[in-house]
C-alpha cells in the first residue's frame, strides 16, 4: 500500500517538474502516525486545480497531463482513506507543489475486519499487499469468488485501479488488447463480464465487442466499454 502511494506521488512530481528541478520525499513517524511528504519545484497549481486534483480522471490544462490517466492521485486518496488517513495539497503556480499524507500507525485505529488474515502465531497486518501480481494471483483461482471479470486495457494505471477496486469480490484477469481477450474467453468460458478500452493495439474495443456479440458461445457475456472520448460523434 505504501509503495503505491509513494510511487504515484513521485510519478506526479516528476511529470510536472522540469529538468534541473528538485523533488523531495520525507517521512516522519511517531507512536501514533506516519507523515509522508512529496515536495517539488515544478509548475505548481492554481487554487481551482487543487480543489479537483484528487477527482477521478481529472487532468489539468497543462500539456504534461496528456500523458497521464487521471487516476494516480485518485488512487492515492482512495488508499489513504481506506487506512483512515488524510492527504492534502499545497501549491503555488510557478513555485511548486507539496502533497502531505498522514496515516495512523496504532492498531486501535482499526477494527478487526480491517486486518488481513495471517498465519497462525504471526502478528496481524493492516490490509496487507498481495505477494503476486494481479494476473498471477487470479490465474491460480480463488475458490471464494464465483464471478470472473476480464479487463481488456493497455494502460497499466487503469488496470491497477480496476483490479484494486473489483478484485476484492471478483476473480480478475487482465489482457492488453482485443485479440488476447478472445483467446482468454476461450480459456475461461465462465467469464461473467468484459470491461474493455476502445483504443488498443492489434484489436480495438469496438471490434472486440462485435466479435463477442456475434459468437454464439460468448454472445451472452455483458460488455462494458470504457472511453475517454466524450464528443457526440464518438458515442455509440
What is the topological layout?
Elements: H1 2-15, E1 23-29, E2 33-40, H2 47-50, H3 72-82, E3 86-92, E4 96-104, E5 115-116, E6 125-126, H4 134-139, E7 148-152, H5 156-166, E8 171-175, H6 178-187, E9 193-197, H7 205-213, E10 223-226
Parallel strand pairs: 7-8, 7-9, 9-10
Antiparallel strand pairs: 1-2, 2-4, 3-4, 5-6
CATH class of the largest domain: Alpha Beta
* Shape category: globular
**Integer tally of domains:** 2
Low-pLDDT residue spans: 119-141, 230-236
Structural class computed from helices and strand pairing: alpha/beta
User: What do we call the CATH topology of the largest domain?
Assistant: Heat Shock Protein 90
The number of E-state strands comes to: 10
Number of helices: 7
CATH superfamily of the largest domain: Histidine kinase-like ATPase, C-terminal domain
Structural description of this entry:
The chain is an alpha/beta fold and 236 residues long. The chain folds into two domains: 2-107, 2-Layer Sandwich (Heat Shock Protein 90), CATH 3.30.565; 130-234, Response regulator (Rossmann fold), CATH 3.40.50.2300. The protein has seven helices and ten strands. It has helices spanning 2-15, 47-50, 72-82, 134-139, 156-166, 178-187, 205-213, and strands at residues 23-29, 33-40, 86-92, 96-104, 115-116, 125-126, 148-152, 171-175, 193-197, 223-226. The strands form three sheets. It has a four-stranded antiparallel sheet with strand order 1-2-4-3, covered by helices on one side. A four-stranded parallel sheet has the order 8-7-9-10, with helices on both faces. Strand 3 (86-92) and strand 4 form a beta hairpin. Helix 1 (2-15) runs antiparallel to helix 3 (72-82) and helix 6 (178-187) runs parallel beside helix 7. The chain is globular, with a radius of gyration of 20 Å. Residues 119-141 and 230-236 have low confidence and may be disordered. Residues 148-236 form the Response regulatory domain.
Amino acid at each position: 500500500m505504501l509503495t503505491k502511494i509513494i510511487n504515484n506521488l513521485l510519478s506526479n512530481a516528476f511529470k510536472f517538474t522540469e529538468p534541473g528541478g528538485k523533488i523531495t520525499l520525507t517521512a516522519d513517524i511517531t507512536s501514533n502516525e506516519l507523515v509522508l511528504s512529496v515536495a517539488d519545484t515544478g509548475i505548481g497549481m492554481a487554487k481551482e486545480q487543487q480543489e479537483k486534483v484528487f477527482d477521478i480522471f481529472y487532468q489539468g490544462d497543462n500539456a504534461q497531463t496528456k500523458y497521464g490517466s487521471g487516476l494516480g492521485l485518485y488512487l492515492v486518496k482512495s488508499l489513504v482513506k481506506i487506512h483512515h488517513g488524510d492527504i492534502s495539497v499545497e501549491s503555488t503556480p510557478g513555485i511548486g507543489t507539496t502533497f502531505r499524507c498522514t496515516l495512523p500507525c496504532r492498531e486501535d485505529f482499526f477494527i478487526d475486519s480491517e486486518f488481513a488474515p495471517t498465519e497462525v502465531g504471526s502478528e496481524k497486518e493492516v490490509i496487507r499487499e498481495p505477494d503476486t501480481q494481479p494476473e498471477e494471483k487470479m490465474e491460480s483461482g480463488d475458490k471464494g469468488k464465483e464471478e470472473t471479470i476480464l479487463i481488456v486495457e493497455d494502460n497499466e494505471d487503469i488496470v491497477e485501479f480496476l483490479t484494486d477496486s473489483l478484485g476484492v469480490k471478483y476473480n480478475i484477469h487482465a489482457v492488453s488488447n482485443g485479440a488476447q481477450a478472445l483467446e482468454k474467453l476461450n480459456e475461461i468460458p465462465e467469464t461473467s463480464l468484459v470491461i474493455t478500452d476502445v483504443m488498443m493495439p492489434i484489436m480495438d474495443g469496438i471490434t472486440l465487442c462485435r466479435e463477442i456479440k456475434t459468437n454464439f458461445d460468448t454472445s451472452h457475456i455483458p460488455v462494458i466499454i470504457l472511453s475517454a472520448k466524450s464528443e457526440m460523434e464518438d458515442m455509440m
